[in-house]
Design goal:
The protein has about 100 residues and is an alpha+beta fold. The chain contains 3 helices and 4 strands; from the N terminus they run αββαββα. It has a 4-stranded antiparallel β-sheet, with helices on one face. The radius of gyration is 14 Å and the shape is globular.
């Protein structure tokens, strides 16, 4: 049996709040993922997040998505793990500049 509409997940931007993180700009999303642009080279941020055991998609080679990554919305625990990995990665990249 299919779940009623009320039980569907809220928009991605309600699940993962990227605001206030320097160097990251999230695009509005009503999907199960968030697209965000970074001021860093996307691959460097991707690698730093990946080293923390979190997988995001590097979409920076797609047309008009230079410096962009995409993260899927997961469970609350997975979302928290992503945000922690993102914060550490941003801090590392900031000190490397």
């Amino acid at each position: 049996m299919r779940a009623p509409l009320e039980s569907l997940s809220p928009p991605a931007t309600d699940c993962i709040e990227l605001g206030g993180r320097g160097g990251v700009e999230a695009f509005p999303s009503r999907a199960n993922f968030i697209l965000f642009r970074t001021r860093f080279v996307a691959r460097r941020l991707f690698d730093a997040i990946y080293e923390a055991g979190v997988l995001v998609r590097d979409v920076s080679s797609y047309p008009m998505l230079e410096r962009c990554l995409r993260v899927s919305v997961g469970t609350a625990e997975q979302n928290t793990r992503f945000l922690e990995a993102l914060d550490r990665a941003l801090e590392t990249l900031e000190t490397d500049e």
